[in-house]
Design a protein that fits this description.
By secondary structure, the chain is α+β, with helices and mostly antiparallel strands. Helix content is 28%, strand content 23%. It is built from 6 helices and 6 strands. A 5-stranded mixed barrel has the order 1-3-4-5-6.
């Protein structure tokens, strides 16, 4: 039986970050530099602790104090993932180190005013009722492990295969979707996959394709955390 959908906030702050991917149940560590996003974290910590992760359409660097373009508001994809702050630590220089846990994907309906500088949107979760039960989905990891070995050999990437083989299939699927160096549009496709089976099919296809090295402003790579 699917988990009952909890009541989630209709208006949420969003953090647009190129190449980032947050999926239900997964953990995403973030280092928050830019002043308006520091405001976002401070407000979230005083409130319900929710922040939405979403990608801008055009790959770009953001969340950097020295980036003059950071004050712009690029167009964003219509689908992101709500996260809940699991851990936070404010640094002496004002930065925040936080860890988000994915809760549910959402669809953006409109963008709202920005009284504290960061972006806020009105969303709904109706398209993604199974997200709350996703970590209970059983997936056989055999095909993913086979594809990962071929992917690692082809691109000279090292993985701890013994450790990954012990990870539940759904956690392996979401962890690889987050951590492997796919392009932002491919990450978005993994996020928007209708269900884990479709995401696995897409992940296997992407691992079987060639990849090109990504520049620093195209790719954000968090570690795999579960």
């Amino acid at each position: 039986m699917a988990a009952e959908m909890p009541k989630l906030p209709e208006i949420i702050p969003v953090f647009p970050l190129t190449g980032s991917l947050l999926l239900p149940g997964n953990l995403l560590p973030l280092n928050i530099f830019e002043p308006r996003y520091r405001n976002m974290v401070a407000d979230a910590l005083e409130g319900d602790g929710h922040i939405g992760m979403i990608q801008p359409f055009v790959p770009r660097q953001d969340n950097w104090l020295e980036d003059e373009a950071a004050q712009e508001n690029p167009d964003i994809y219509p689908v992101g993932c709500l996260g809940r702050i699991e851990d936070s630590e404010r640094q002496p220089d004002g930065r925040y180190l936080i860890v988000l846990r994915g809760v549910s994907r959402f669809r953006v309906h409109e963008e709202l005013a920005r009284p504290r500088g960061y972006r806020r949107v009105r969303v709904d979760y109706a398209e993604f009722p199974r997200d709350f039960d996703e970590l209970n989905v059983f997936l056989n990891p055999t095909q993913m492990m086979k594809a990962l070995r071929a992917f690692g050999d082809k691109h000279e990437l090292e993985f701890d295969y013994d450790l990954l083989a012990s990870v539940p299939g759904i956690s392996l699927l979401n962890g690889l979707s987050v951590a492997l160096p796919f392009r932002p549009a491919e990450k978005q496709a993994l996020l928007e996959a209708a269900d884990p089976a479709v995401r696995e099919e897409l992940l296997l296809a992407l691992m079987g394709m060639g990849i090109e090295p990504l520049s620093a402003d195209e790719y954000y790579s968090p570690p795999i955390l579960n």
